[in-house]
Amino acid sequence: KNLGRNRFHYFTPCMQKEAQARRRLISDLRLALADRQFRVQYQPIVDLSTGAISKAEALIRWQHPTRGMVSPAEFIPIAEETGLIVEIGDWVFREVAWQLSRWRERYPQLVVSLNTSPVQYRNSGIDHHGWFRYLHDMGVPASAISVEITEGLLLDTSTAITNQILRFREAGAGVALDDFGTGYSSMSYLSKLDIDYLKIDRSFILDLAPESESVALYEAMIVMAHKLGIKVIAEGVETEEQCRILKAVGCDYAQGYLFSRPVLPEEFEALLRDGPARYRDSVAPASMLN
Ligand code: C2E
Ligand code: MG
Ligand code: MG
Ligand code: MG
């Protein structure tokens, strides 16, 4: 009991500070949209059968006026708790649609995937009609986007949510299950909801080395996904060896620092033009996306 009391006294000032910092972050976050402090970076997703960039993932960045870059891992959860994620999600979508309207002229096959939060679906925060009209006005087909959802959303089997995900597919957009393997869902959920891509979480790649058990695990996930007609994207690929193993076990796409970090649009255009750095001087797949 004594210990408990001490602990209580010890933690209080700390918790107060934390709560204060949180309130600060919330009020800063409210200003960030109007003050244009957000940017979207794009990270290439490489088709392992050709070596070409065929897709990109859009990742939000917050350039805070005094704190510098704040990681989405820090502010997305707060945006979710406060509901601000709905507005932020709309902004990211419009930003991506606008970029696509410029890029698709030259790269008509390019697909950009964007992260969506369960909160957006639960509060009917995604205005599908508005989104599709926006794409139409931009001259971008719905098939140029893919929405990434997280496993937690699949556990929620309410038809309201399933229907919202279905609306993307009906419009021709892709649906990707992000961070696969980190949550509680199993392969059986995959067969319940039609999805196009499975993104295997970075944690699985960390010990991907020849002879390691994770190779068998990766292979099993890929085989099952393929049986369900789902393509597999490996997240967090950092080494040539990982890339080689992924190809050997039949993985379809890879994304990671080996190819490029997430970059601003101008730099992504250069990647589309010249190919990811690692290919530039080697076995260059000369034409991207054609
Ligand atoms: P995620 O969707 O799983 O995105 C992949 C994360 O892995 C990104 O972190 C990316 O920069 C990082 N990454 C990519 N390749 C590598 C690699 O080779 N090694 C390592 N160590 N990391 C790699 P980031 O950009 O910090 O984003 C973190 C998370 O924040 C995302 O995870 C996603 O869940 C969320 N997020 C980012 N942008 C948005 C957004 O616009 N909306 C929503 N709702 N969530 C977002
Ligand atoms: Mg993602
Ligand atoms: Mg991911
Ligand atoms: Mg991940």
Explain what you see.
- The chain has 290 residues and is α/β, with parallel strands linked by helices.
- Helix content is 51%, strand content 18%.
- It has 13 helices and nine strands.
- The protein has an eight-stranded mixed β-barrel with strand order 1-2-4-5-6-7-8-9, surrounded by five helices.
- A hairpin with a 5-residue loop joins strand 1 and strand 2.
- Helix 1 packs across helix 2 and helix 3 packs parallel to helix 5.
- The protein starts with a helix and ends in a 10-residue tail after the last helix.
- The C terminus is likely disordered.
- The structure holds ligand C2E and magnesium ion (MG) (3 copies).
- Ligand C2E binds next to strand 2, helix 2 and strand 6.
